[in-house]
């Protein structure tokens, strides 16, 4: 039940603001740790490429964007050294996109920084409260919450 002091639209705005705060803090720290060019969408791309690599077409499908949009992002991440294009051993006509050592370092550091940020939230709100928030969100969010198509979803 909503009340005038807690209208329903505030909840998604607060959830988004919490997400944005965590992501902004993450990227500020990644910049300090030697990854100033990583952007929020890049994390989704690196995750979607996965440890085995993928094609640009499959990457576009995973992200919910066109092959061309995925290719443009891949071009940028290749230029920055986070991804590489290699021949597909199963089909010489295709290229695979793979995460480089620099990309893996960015992902590893991201995971560590997110752990630190969670710790900061726990220090401010209390560890039990942060755990309760996570548990409550798990109850409310569909099982496929960790879809990687957020860039496509935001793009309309």
TrEMBL record:
The keyword DNA-binding applies. Pfam families: MarR_2 (PF12802). One of its GO terms (biological process) is response to stress. SUPFAM superfamilies: Winged helix' DNA-binding domain. InterPro entries: HTH_MarR-typ, MarR/SlyA-like, WH-like_DNA-bd_sf, WH_DNA-bd_sf. It comes from Micromonospora sediminicola. Keywords: DNA-binding. Residues 8-142 form the HTH marR-type domain. PANTHER family: MARR FAMILY REGULATORY PROTEIN (PTHR33164:SF99), TRANSCRIPTIONAL REGULATOR, MARR FAMILY (PTHR33164). This is DNA-binding transcriptional regulator, MarR family. GO terms for molecular function: DNA binding; DNA-binding transcription factor activity. It comes from the Bacteria. Coiled coil: none annotated. The keyword DNA-binding applies.
